[in-house]
């Protein structure tokens, strides 16, 4: 368990750094309205952030997901693996979808306040240069200050956990699609149908593929979550009111806004997260497999023992079934 948390932290940090600029662009596009339109599209958003806020503008609020990524990854690994015991064959697509949904539901309670902080910090100081932003009056000084002020204004349920229902609505189908998508990719793209036999470049492609699959089925919920969490408390009565007002004023296209940078983000984030985790898992868990070394019986006589092909075969510990040894990739925030 401790190693899973450690591996998950390192892999999650790597994936977060790789994909975070795309996440900032996604959130900026999701939260802008027709009445206050700052960016005409993904490329325009990238260019304006780079020019106006420098490269550091892409990484606003990154400390929030960096802090929580170890806990979230550890929860997902633990819940998903533990819930496999509920099924006789945990490697079926149905079982993987159910166990993934359970893992997504549990981690949403940790993920929701983290994303609340991340979203509010990402849209803070839009268009301001780094030096001017530091000198100007802004609402939040950092993640802890954001949580403290959110709690002070609306309490725990309506303040800190604002948007929890949409986080659940997003993460349950997202993880329910994520693990079966990875299994599908392994079965069809691995030379032997096992993930351990896939080359590294295929793991990179597989991570991007599963990330895109997970976001595709859950993206509209993410849009509403971002808009609701970023808005002031008096703008919307609730998540349903946010969805209705967004649809009435901006049409169905509002639910796909920012999808391009989101899919671009999924490629490096998931492509880096899984290979790093798998590499750490193989490297540091290797000493535990010493008992798999081929052993020969100790001779009971001083006479030399002549071994032949017809002698009693040596015992080799069979590899554990894929349901317990496979390393499943984790979707980063």
Walkthrough of the structure:
The protein has 333 residues and is mostly helical. It has one domain (2-325): Alpha/alpha barrel (Mitochondrial carrier fold), CATH 1.50.40. It has helices spanning 2-31, 42-53, 63-83, 93-122, 130-135, 143-160, 164-189, 200-230, 239-250, 259-285, 322-325. Helix 1 packs across helix 3 (63-83), helix 1 runs antiparallel to helix 10 and helix 8 (200-230) crosses helix 9 (239-250). It is globular. Mean pLDDT is 79; it is low at 132-136, 288-312 and 323-327.
User: Residue ranges: pLDDT <50 for 5 or more in a row?
Assistant: 132-136, 288-312, 323-327
Main sheet specs: none
CATH topology: Mitochondrial carrier fold
Query: Mean pLDDT, as a whole number?
Result: 79
Q: Which architecture would the CATH scheme give at its second level?
A: Alpha/alpha barrel
* Top-tier CATH class: Mainly Alpha
- The tally of structural domains comes to 1
The backbone outline, from C-alpha atoms, is globular
> What is the overall number of helices?
11
Termini Cα gap: 21 Å
Kindly state the number of beta strands.
Answer: 0
Rg result: 24 Å
Beta-strand proportion: under 5%
State the helicity in percent bands. Answer: 55-70%
Order of helices and strands: HHHHHHHHHHH
Membrane topology: Multi-pass membrane protein
Region (Disordered): 293-333
Family: Belongs to the mitochondrial carrier (TC 2.A.29) family.
Pfam family, one: Mito_carr
């Amino acid at each position: 368990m401790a190693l899973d948390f450690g591996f998950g932290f390192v892999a999650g940090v790597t994936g977060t750094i790789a994909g975070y600029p795309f996440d900032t662009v996604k959130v900026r596009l999701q939260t802008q309205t027709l009445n206050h339109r700052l960016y005409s599209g993904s490329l325009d958003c990238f260019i304006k952030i780079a020019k106006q806020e420098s490269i550091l503008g892409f990484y606003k609020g990154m400390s929030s997901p960096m802090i929580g990524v170890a806990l979230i990854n550890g929860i997902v690994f633990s819940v998903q693996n533990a819930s496999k015991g509920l099924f006789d064959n945990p490697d079926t697509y149905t079982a993987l979808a159910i166990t993934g949904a359970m893992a997504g539901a549990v981690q949403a309670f940790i993920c929701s306040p983290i994303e609340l902080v991340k979203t509010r910090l990402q849209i803070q100081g839009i268009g301001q240069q780094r030096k001017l932003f530091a000198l100007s009056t802004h609402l939040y000084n950092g993640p802890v200050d954001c949580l403290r002020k959110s709690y002070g204004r609306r309490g725990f349920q309506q303040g800190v956990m604002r948007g929890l229902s949409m986080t659940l609505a997003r993460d349950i189908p997202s993880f329910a699609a994520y693990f079966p998508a990875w299994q599908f990719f392994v079965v069809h793209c691995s030379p032997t149908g096992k993930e351990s036999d896939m080359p590294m470049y295929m793991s990179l492609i597989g991570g991007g593929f599963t990330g895109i699959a997970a976001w595709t089925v859950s993206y509209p919920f993410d849009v509403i979550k971002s808009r609701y969490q970023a808005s002031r408390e008096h703008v919307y009565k609730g998540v349903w009111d946010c969805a209705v007002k967004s649809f009435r004023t901006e049409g169905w296209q509002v639910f796909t806004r920012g999808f391009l940078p989101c899919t671009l983000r999924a490629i490096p984030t998931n492509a880096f997260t899984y290979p790093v985790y798998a590499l750490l898992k193989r490297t540091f868990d290797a000493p535990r497999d010493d008992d798999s070394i081929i052993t020969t019986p100790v001779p009971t006589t001083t006479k030399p023992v002549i071994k032949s092909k017809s002698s009693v075969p040596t015992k080799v510990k069979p590899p554990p079934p894929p349901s317990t040894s496979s390393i499943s990739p984790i979707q980063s925030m």
